[in-house]
Design a protein that fits this description.
Blueprint: H1 17-20, E1 24-25, E2 27-32, E3 38-43, E4 46-50, E5 55-61, H2 65-73, E6 75-79, H3 86-91, H4 102-106, E7 110-112, E8 119-121, E9 126-136, E10 148-160, E11 165-166, E12 169-170, H5 172-175, E13 178-180, E14 186-188
Antiparallel strand pairs: 1-13, 2-3, 2-6, 4-5, 5-10, 6-9, 7-8, 9-10, 11-12, 13-14
């Protein structure tokens, strides 16, 4: 089958786009508002975009609390979502009134970051502390702004629980990262395999 996205006539019960672009890491974004309130929310449009410097990005559909707070304070954190925290991550997606704490609602421990003014999940195996570098409103082909807002941040600090470290590297069988698939589906990394890049035959 083939369909153009301007009509989006795929004939399926649900739009398959986000299921095709999967699995996607979950950005569990912690932030603090200018009024001092704290917020925690998961974003499936999230990823690392650079290693040198270390940059990450999350995309907010509309001007939600995380984007608002990051713009006000210039900082956010990203907590690692492992299988043992998946249900609490899902609880933190509840649409609470601004100023209400998703940490409290989900039964999670807010910890103050070391280098930025934002909270993170104390139970998480790993955390990225980030300072905002850019906030972008991407445009469509027609030149109109899309409904999403991109927040980019440079990672300035990393927390890592040594319980998931084996032989000098993170053991994914211990970390058990959770990824977002399409629809309401999630997956857990249960099988890991290595592949090394081929060497050039030239020279």
């Amino acid at each position: 089958m083939f369909y153009s996205t301007d009509s989006n006539r795929h004939g399926l019960a649900h739009d398959p786009f986000k299921a095709i672009v999967s699995p996607r890491p979950i950005g569990w974004i912690g932030s603090k508002g200018g009024d001092g309130s704290i917020n925690l929310a998961p974003y499936s449009f999230f990823n690392a975009v650079s290693d040198r410097p270390k940059l990450v990005m999350f995309s907010s559909s509309g001007r939600k609390d995380s984007q608002r707070n990051a713009a006000e304070t210039g900082a956010f954190t990203c907590s690692f979502v492992s299988r043992n925290l998946a249900e609490k991550m899902n609880l933190s997606s509840a649409a609470l009134p601004y100023g209400d704490s998703e940490f409290d609602f989900a039964g999670l421990t807010p910890k103050q970051a070391e280098l930025v003014d934002a909270p993170y999940v104390g139970e998480a195996f790993a955390v990225l502390e980030c300072k905002v570098t850019e906030i972008i409103e991407p445009k469509t082909l027609s030149g109109q702004p899309s409904e999403n807002v991109f927040v980019f941040g440079e990672v300035v600090g990393i927390h890592l629980d040594e319980a998931i470290v084996r032989d000098g590297r993170i053991d994914m069988s211990l970390a058990r990262p959770v990824a977002r698939l399409g629809y309401m589906d999630y997956s857990e990394t249960s099988e890991v395999f290595e592949m090394f890049r081929p060497r050039s035959q030239q020279g």
